[in-house]
Structures are given as structure tokens and as C-alpha cells.
Amino acid sequence: MPLFRLGLRLAADSLRRSLGRVGNYHKEAHMKHLSMAEEVRTVTGNQAKRLKSSSCGREEDEKEDDGKQEEKGHALKRFKASEDEAEDGAKRFPKRKIVLLVAYSGKGYHGMQRNVGNSQFKTIEDDLVLALIQSGCIPENHGEDMKKMSFQRCARTDKGVSAAGQIVSLKVWLIEDILQKINNHLPPHIRILGLKRVTGGFNSKNKCDARTYSYMLPTFAFAHKDCDFQDHTFHLNTETLATVNRLLAGYKGTHNFHNFTSQKGPKDPSAKRYIMEMYCEEPFVRQGMEFAVMKVKGQSFMMHQIRKMIGLVIAIVKGYASESIMEQSWGEEKVDVPKAPGLGLVLERVHFEKYNKRFGNDGFHEALEWAEEEEKISAFKEKYIYPTIISTEKEERSMANWLETLSYHDFNSTASRTQLDNRDTQTNDHEGSDGFGDDSD
């Protein structure tokens, strides 16, 4: 028995020791698990912090990038808006084909037509195109290439020649108060007096079927060569005025005007021109000198034609040539026809009868007639054109000096074409010429 109990006690002690070792093992394992879990939590937490920090950084970067992109977008939009501001603003207004009624005093200008790239000789169109750009009617690049706005003048007046009724056709943005804005950028001796809508294919040169010009001159030009009064003291009487009008009426109809221009022979079909009317109005006095205005309406005119028509009538009235020379000049022989000075020549009006008949009453377009602008046209001539002609005549005596050359012409014989063409070329022509090159054919 005692041995049995001793055996049990030893077995119990051994079991307790074994259980103790197992407990310590589990305890140590548990502690290891706790330690590992803590490490995992720490690592996971650090990684989470790093991920969170990285994520926040990326979000901030993305926000910053988005802000920069948005800022760039706004900048691009602002740039585009500023770049297209004029065009976008103009697009609020329709772009349409129109005609402008233009009046100008040609003194100091080298004609109507613009010479792009040549700033040495200033023309009426130089000032006109600049005013169109500055007023916002056309883009700036249209000024360098006038075809982009379909620009066309009706008549090409030359150096020093004025106009009271020039017509130009072009495409513009129909901005508000367009006439006032254009005129605000023009000198006072160039005015836009009227505007009308026209068809899209309208061309002021091609659609024009007649032109009216006036020629203002001192009446002493009609004094007979044997008259004692060859200056401002002369006054035109009714008898002489009747003679002048009878001779001018002789031009009416179709004639061969090859003697009234240069470089055209009698066989050239384009030398034949149709004159509708030509007459001289009653004389009037300005600044102590008597003047008269002659008017001629025709389908078209050649270079120097009007000035030679007037020059020949003056030569006949003054007694230098016989009346028969007028009919002779329409024949095939070359006749010495004198050319009157360019001062005093004015483009009065251009006519569009055929266009008006077809489109004037169609309900969409206006007839190209300017009855409502007559008062403004007359006022412009009285303020700018007539005073310039009168003052220049009194200062430079262009008509008086030209009259002295009539005795050099031989109206009783013919001359070779070369001789007469050379004489035309050598004539002092500083006042300017008819300049109807646009209308010659």
C-alpha cells in the first residue's frame, strides 16, 4: 500500500509538471500570438497611414492638377474669347452685300482706286477702307485683300477728280449706326451719304448701265478769241449759251469717239460710245467769278473722252475751229482734238435702270435711286467740291493757261496718230484725267 501511494504521488507530480510545461507552452504561444498580432496591427496601421497619406497626396495632387487644368481651360477660353471677340461680336450682325453712296473732293488724292502696298500715292479708297476697318464693318485682313469683301467701285476717277455720287459695292457686317460710325473715321471731305441692300451677286461696275459727269468751268472759256474780255469780267449771254447747248446736243447718240481718246483706232469697235444727253446749265457767280456747269450722261466713257468733247466745243465757240470739225472727228481720219483741263470734272451720278427694273420692286431689295439724299449731295458739293474747284482755278489759272494753247492746234488739217498721241502724253496734266479705264470696254 505505501508503495502504491508513493507511486500515485510520483505519477501525480509528474502529471502536474507536464501540465505546467504545457501551460507554459500555451502561455508562451499565446504571448507570441499576441505579440505577432500587435506587430501586424502596427505594420498594418503604418501601411494604412502611408496609404492614407499617399492617397491624400494623390488627391491633393489631383485636385491641384485639376485646378491647373481648369485654370488653363479658363485661360484658353478667355484667349479664344478675346481672339474672337470682334468676330463673335460682329456675328451678332448679319454680313450682307450693300452699296455705299460716296462723295469726295479729289484734290490731294491720286485717284479713287487703291494700290495695295503702295503708300506713296494716297487714294480715296485708302481712307475709305481704313474707316471700314476701324468702324468694325470688315475684318482687318479684308483691307489687304479687297476681294474678300467683294469690293468694286463703279467708276475709277483719276488724280484730282471729285465725285458727288460714286457707288461702291461690298460685303460688310451691318452694325448699328453703320453710316455714322464709318463717317466718324473719315476726313470731312469724304462722306458716306447713303446705303442700300443689293443682291448677293451685285457688282457696281458691271451692273451700272449709265454714268453722269459734270464739268464746272469759268464762263470766260466761251468768250470769242477776239473778245476784249478773257477773264473774270466776262459774262455768258443767252445767245452764246444757246450755241454751246446746240453744239453739246450734237454729241447725243452713238458715235465713233476714237479721236477723243488715245491708243484707239477708227476700226476699234470699243471706240463707239452712246451719249444720252449733254447740256450746259445757267451760269452763276462764286467769289466774284462767273461759272457754269456742263453735264453729260452716257453708257460709258473712255480715257479723256469727256475733256476732249468739252475742249472741242470750246474751240468752236471761241472761233478756233469750224462746226464741221465735230462731224469730221467721228470719221476715220485723225483729227486734232484739244483736251480741256481736268479741274472741274466731277462724277455726279451712276445709273442702274436695268437693275432697278428687275429688283427695285421685288419686295426684298431697294431701287438704287437717291432722291432722299439729294439735299445732302447738294450740300456736300457746295461745301467741299465747288469751293475747291473755284479756289484752285483762281490760284493756278488752269483754264486760262489752257486757253492760250488752243492757237497751237491746227483744226484745218489732220495729223498722224503718233503725233497727236504724243501731244496728249506731253500735255501738262497735273490736275488729273477722266480716268475711266474701268469703263473703256
Features of the shown structure:
single chain; 441 residues; Alpha-Beta Plaits; ten-stranded mixed β-sheet; 12 helices; 10 strands; globular
- In CATH terms, what is the fold-level topology of the largest domain? Alpha-Beta Plaits
Mind describing the biggest β-sheet?
A: 10 strands, mixed
* Overall tally of structural domains: 2
How much is the radius of gyration in Å?
46 Å
N-to-C order of helices and strands: HHEHHEEHEEHEEEEHHEHHHH
Query: Tally the helices: what do you get?
Result: 12
Average pLDDT over all residues: 81
Distance between the termini: 158 Å
Break the fold down into its secondary structure elements and pairings:
Layout: H1 2-83, H2 85-91, E1 95-104, H3 124-134, H4 141-144, E2 152-153, E3 162-173, H5 178-184, E4 190-197, E5 210-218, H6 238-249, E6 253-256, E7 272-280, E8 284-286, E9 289-298, H7 305-317, H8 324-329, E10 345-351, H9 353-359, H10 374-396, H11 398-403, H12 417-426
Parallel strand pairs: 3-10
Antiparallel strand pairs: 1-3, 1-4, 2-3, 5-9, 5-10, 6-7, 7-9, 8-9
Helix pairs in contact: 1-2, 3-5, 6-7
Question: How would you describe what is shown here?
Answer:
With 441 residues, this protein is an alpha+beta fold. It has two domains: 105 residues, Pseudouridine synthase I, catalytic domain, N-terminal subdomain (Alpha-Beta Plaits); 230 residues, Pseudouridine synthase I, catalytic domain, C-terminal subdomain (Alpha-Beta Plaits). It has twelve helices and ten strands. Strands 1, 2, 3, 4, 5, 6, 7, 8, 9 and 10 form a ten-stranded mixed β-sheet that branches. The radius of gyration is 46 Å and the shape is globular.
